[in-house]
Amino acid sequence: MHYVILTSRLDPDHGGLTASLLRKSAILNRELGICPQIATFHDAAGFPEVCADLRTRYALPPEIEFTNINHHYRAQPTPPDAPTGPDALSRICADLPGYEARYTYDAAGAPFAATITVDGQAARRVYFRPDGSVFEVRPGDGSPKAAAAQKKAGAAAEGSNGAANSTSDGQTGALAAGAVSAEAKQVAARAAQITAGCEIVLDPLTSREQRFKTFDGFRRHFMDELCQGPLTYFICEARLLDKALLSLENRQARKIFVFHSVHIRPGTDIIRVGNRALLKNLSQADALVLLTGWQKQDVADRFGYADRLHVIPHATQLAAAGGERDPNKLAVVSRLNEEKNLGDSIRALQQVRQVHPQAHLEIWGSGPEEASLKSLAQELDLAEAVHFAGYSKQAQQAFDTAAVSLLTSRWEGFSLTVMESMAHGAPCVAYNTKYGPAEMIIDGVNGYLVEPGNVEQLAERVAGLLSLPAADWQAMSQAAADRMREFSEARLAERWQSLFESLRQPVAVRPPLLKRAWRRVPRKLREPVGRILSRS
């Protein structure tokens, strides 16, 4: 059996999704002996170096392989008829007069890619093997401006009878001066066809050329190449890749999708854009893994196919005792994004300090909201009481010395930060948002659940925790840690193994129910109706 975890990208400063899939990979390896292949689809010259760092950080064995769509094709043998060196780029861009090339390089100093611009707008993206041959071409950067530049460049090339220019590091130069030869015209005409009607071209201008009309078609081709017999389990962690995997036609493939966040826009009944491809085509999926029972019920009630929905929450390990607890310390570990709503944590601190003047807040993480959050702290006269610690690979250690952690997100898929806090013995006060906190926190026993947006109640619960006698606080801390025993690594591995075994035989593909028909089914009957249909 072969196992492939699909994710859009891997970054050194990553969030919960990347952390969870890397931890899951390590757990499946330790507990089941599975060595998943982790495949990414982003444009990253430094991919090998990032992977080396993540392998060390998450203690991943060499048997767990990282692969990237661009680096995969970069490593393929060079076609014998492929142009190399400066000639390669000049041929690829022969239809773009006056172009300029901006290069990115790999760790060895070899060109990895070049962004080709015309009149300052991206018109083409070209990727190189270490020997200088071109293995991939994309038109522009996918933006409307790039498409316009491509059209303008094509018109200019036609009007110039195919005059071609070559550039290096932004320095424009002429490939030929004076009259344009017949050969140059042919090269320009051929170059103009490279990306015509295509978003991706592999090994252009060679006998091995492959053309893909869409990025999803290219991604699907890569996934197909990752299949290994007799069976390959694809675990798709990123919604960007759903369409490609859903459309993969390979009898060896089993298609498993994992939701890490809410599927409905909070406060509405509207499906989030990224989730629509999958939820409207659940009949094409072998399994959808949700992190909570609450979300599974919501998905089943609205979309049916309950037999394909599985709950597998994250796992954690109980942390060893850290430093001495600070009885006045509040901790938050989070990306500083709008959806995390960290302003409410700061506003709650202002009220808590009316009862506990020494209370202070540590915020670990980085993101676009940092400046506005610092301004809010300043505005509330809390500049000295709120410490922005930035991003850290060991941010969860902040819970070792905290008396309480906070979660004020507008929505969550599960919330690794609640799990980590409780595993470190720090009770959490959390907004009871969809989804996650209620799966872990037993209100008043190992933490508190608060009405979302109710800052006064949040502050009241935090102040109450800080006021507890030492023995009572210790009891709540111990209850938090004990609760995390139910989310052990062995239990996670057991659930995944059960899912894999259930999918050894392909799941029957059924035509999706008409929306109107399904909505007429009473909510209380949707679960049993879904079970009946799953057997049909």
Task: Put the structure in a nutshell.
The protein is α/β, with parallel strands linked by helices and 536 residues long. The protein is built from 19 helices and 21 strands. It has a seven-stranded parallel beta sheet with strand order 3-2-1-12-13-14-15. Strands 4-5-6-7-10-11 form a six-stranded antiparallel beta sheet. Strands 18-17-16-19-20-21 form a six-stranded parallel beta sheet, with helices on both faces.
**Strands in their spatial order, largest beta sheet:** 3-2-1-12-13-14-15
Average pLDDT confidence is 86
Q: How would you describe the shape?
A: globular
The whole-angstrom Rg is: 27 Å
Low-confidence stretches: 142-180
The portion of residues forming beta strands comes to: 15-25%
Q: Could you give a short account of the major beta sheet?
A: 7 strands, parallel
What is the number of helical segments per DSSP (H or I, 4+ residues)?
19
Number of strands: 21
Helix content: 25-40%
Structural class by sheet pairing and helices: alpha/beta
End-to-end Cα distance, whole Å, is 29 Å
Structural description of this entry:
The protein has 536 residues and is α/β, with parallel strands linked by helices. It contains 19 helices and 21 strands. The protein has helices at residues 16-32, 47-57, 69-74, 86-92, 144-159, 182-192, 215-226, 242-246, 273-279, 293-303, 343-352, 370-379, 416-423, 437-440, 455-467, 470-484, 489-502, 515-520, 523-534; strands spanning 2-6, 37-40, 65-68, 100-105, 111-118, 121-128, 134-139, 165-168, 171-174, 200-202, 210-212, 232-236, 253-258, 287-290, 309-311, 329-333, 360-364, 386-390, 404-407, 428-431, 447-450. The strands form four sheets. Strands 3-2-1-12-13-14-15 form a seven-stranded parallel beta sheet. Strand 14, helix 10 and strand 15 (309-311) form a beta-alpha-beta unit. The longest helix is centred in the first third of the chain and has 17 residues, at 16-32. Residues 142-180 have low confidence and may be disordered.
